[in-house]
Amino acid sequence: MAELSLTGTTKVFKDGGDEIVAVDNIDLDIEDGEFVVLVGPSGCGKSTTLRMIAGLDKPTSGTISIGGEAIQDRSPQERDIAMVFQSYALYPHMTVRGNMAFGLEESTDMTDAEIDETVTDAAETLGIANLLDRKPGALSGGQQQRVALGRAIVRNPEVFLLDEPLSNLDAKLRAQMRTELQQLQDDLGVTTIYVTHDQTEAMTMGDRIAILDGGRLQQLGTPMECYHEPANVFVAGFLGEPAMNFFDATVDGATLVSEEFTYALPDEIAAKTTDGAEVVLGIRPESIDITDDPDSSEGIPATIDVVEPHGDENAVHLRLGDQSEPTLTAMIDGMRYLASGQSVRVHFPTDSVHLFDAESGEAIHNRQLTNVDRVQEIGTAQSAD
Amino acid sequence: MVMYVGPIMVPMPRKGNSGGDEGSLTRRRLIQVGSLGVGMMVAGCSEGDGGSDGGSDGDGGGDGDGGGTATMTDNPMEALHGWTGGDGAAAIGKLVDMWEEQYPDTAHDIKPIGGDANENLNSTVARRLANRNPPDAFASWPGKTMEQYGGRLMSITDVWEANNYTETMHPKSLGENKLNGEFRAIPLGSHRLNNLFYNVSILEEAGVDPESLTSYDNFIDALDAVDQNTDAIPMTITTRGSWANLQYFVEFMLGTEGQEPYEAFLDGDGDKQALVRALEKTQNVIENYTNDDKSSISFPEANDKLINGNAAFFTMGNWAYGMYRNTDNFEYEEDWGWVAFPGTADMYVWHLDSFLFPRDGNAPQKARTFAKFLGTKDVQVEFNNLKGSIPLRTDVDGSRLTDFLNLNVEDLNSLEKFPPTLAHGLAATAEDLSACKDAIASNFMGPYDPEATAEELMSVF
Amino acid sequence: MSNPQDTVAGSQAVGGTETDDWRTRLVEFSKSDFVRSFPFWFVPFSIMGLGVYGGIGYNTLISLTDYEGFNEGPDYTNLDLGMYVQAVNDPWVWTTSKNTFVLLIVFTTITMLLGLFLAIMLDRGIRYREKIQTIYLLPMALSFVVTAQFWLWMYNVNNGLVNTVVGLFGLGPYNWIGDPQLVLGSVIFALIWQFSGYAMVVFLAGLQSIPDDQFEAAKVDGASVFKTYWRVIIPQLKSSSVSAAVVLMIFALKAFTFLFSMFGQYRVPKGTDILATLMVREAFKLQNWAYAAAIATILLLMALAVIAPYLHYQHKQGSL
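^ Those are the sequences you sent over. The predicted structure of the assembly is below.
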């Protein structure tokens, strides 16, 4: 079957005398039929990884195998993969039918009639049967996208590779296609690697997501795991919008001392730290409690800088203490009213804080996923974004 | 003259779906129409000169032909010639210097029109005559070639008579410079065409006595001797242009058949078999005794082979002599020699360079002055000494000329047979000459077909 | 209309609305792209129209007269096709037409194929691409006067490089210029040498405007390198090939200049004599203006006949 494995896969580009490590020793095991999203910022190596799987780039070292067979030395046509390009790469001089049939004509022994039938079936599945005789230039972006998908689907490949396929669509169409793609993948049951820089796509679409940065795999896990139990500062900061708040702090016994505040650690967390260690405190915006009771002495005094209404929620940017710039972002209920300039107190619930080693960025402590219902709730809220 | 204003098309980036349907339709329609234009422009430009120049049919110059009042205009006297390089350029340069010295107040515009074999000069003149914008004078061949300009030339008979040129110019040249009973040209110099130049040391090596080269058979013997006894090419020639082959044929015709059959042929009364015989002999020499690269080299390159000691014989008008004179350590009678082309010792194959004088020019009086100037002894001597041609004035002091030219002058003044050159336009109108060249180009530039050539040549006259 | 006052009175009587309407339309018209762009395109358009189409029209008109010589202008009162009848019966016209046709087709086709081949080779990332590109383009920058003489030397039967090279294969020597069977081929080869670099640059520009993902998509689709070019890349070079074809045809007609430079006269060997040289001879050596104009028209028609089907096909394909 079509499990896909990357073992120690590395890609080094030579630029003059310099060597640029685009992908650094990645290990990745993807199960048959699984939908894995490779996500990361520009230049993280996700596209190069995909291109190595496709056979468009050759790994400098390491192996890639599909269904247990090492394929890193094979040409793309011998790998039984299909790929959807970011720009779609439709052949402008061919009709939709020609575009979809091309791969079958070149890589199979199917008769013209069989090819035509396959193409028509796929086109019907995608709802583009009426476009078969048009040329790509006469199609809308969404239609071109479907043709690009169709071109990959007709090949009936072992592995389906998608390189930022939705990035050229407008927001509404993108949301719609996201769902359709997931459904399609479900129906086809083909092992799929999906590359994107958009963390929302990653969170919502993947069975698992692989987060890359600087050519290295930072974390591989389900969206929930990655969101709530980030392996390091990078993953914590990358997933979630608005991003997690971070504060540099020093451990002083059971207390965290930062420039703006001190924060008492519960024993179970304090036990994971050593006295005097430099750490980073992380707290997600939606976990922060804000109190506007002037008499309260709980929490850290703060001033509201800007309130951004998001509808169901409001994003609140706060200045801690006497800071001149906002350093903290919190999400509050959309119905709650807070005014710019208002003095409030913020509180970080101890079950929601994350603690990272300042030097290595590795997670020391993550919030605990104990309540499944709560997890579902948070997950839903995120994807509605 | 050939201007192609080809629009360099650059591939347009594919526009994809941008631009509405309607817009792209318009653009495509434009291209449809425009591309037709481009295609037409292709031919349009190349034909422009051919067609549109005939345009103005107005009578042109209000100056009249100068026959009436002899007032000088302020316009410079414009004279066109084709001497852009070598001896010709030096000679015309000298001529201009002399003009400026003698007529410092008479503005002139004596200028060369470049190009091989006067092609550009002739087409420029043709265009300007057709446009009724003639120069005041232009260099050309008189004789039958002049006939094409009939009606567009002015009479300069008064200049001839006033300066007594009718008495002092060579009598053979008088008729050639007349058209419709009037002098319309003035001769500047004459090149003799029936020359056989040879490399002295090769002939010595081959054991050939140049004095023996009096007939075709003797010539073949000499060629054989060179072929067998030396490494040199017996005869170096050029066949790059059909004029050369036509010229060779005429030489052999005159040398083997004589002047009368040749002139009978020109009069349309020829003996075809005589032509065939002459053409066969020409073919024999070209195919068996000449350099292989004749079709890709020019006559100076051919002549170089003689100068370099790679070839024994070379036949050409005596302008070829200029190359010997300009080669260091290559002296007459020591390194190179001359005899009349075999069988033509009693002939002077006749060629003339003249200036012709169009009517309706801008400076007709100055043109007359120029005509007078061209006929003066000094000009004739100085120009021809540099050009390597022979003055037509019969009263020049031979000591003022170089040895070789003097030899030619003696022949010019003593010989009685003056068959006119065909390849250089004295013997045939432009139309007939072109037809002769067509005949040669079709049948006598390899493969050689004397029968068909003769047939076609006979039909010309 | 003869009485302007009537018009004024009339329009007043009908009322202001129509006048306003008319005025609005005029104002709109004056603001339209057509009017506002008028000064920019009208001048070049009219100059080109007059120079090209006027020239063509006038030439055609001349070809219908019997205009020749210097003394009489063309007589437009008696137009007929006499010159064309004469041309059809002139064997020389047939010879030169055949040569022109062969030159157009063979030169354009081979130059484009060679240019395409070179462009693909370069595009596939030969090192020192810029330098190689310059080397190929260089011949085009040279004047015909230079290249014609250059090729005369190359083709010299005794010591020309061409015979030296074919001699290595035990062939020849051939009389490239002197042999009437070879001379046209020799001229075409020289022209191909001169202009394949141009075709290459046009195609290279076309190739480089094709995104890499087209190659990659074809690769993933399982197409071989040859099939990738044949089915995916080359069909996308249509607009480049239209440009190249049109320009190369112009160059093919410029062979006149090359021939003139090579042989030093309008009369070139019969094997390579083309309509353009014949036309110039008829016009400027013989003053057969009308006949030369008729030949020019034939040349024009021939060029159109060759390129029109191709352009039509490209237009139908949407490449134009």
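Chain B touches chain C through 75 residues (CB under 8 Å). The radius of gyration of chain B is 26 Å.

Shout if you want it in another format.
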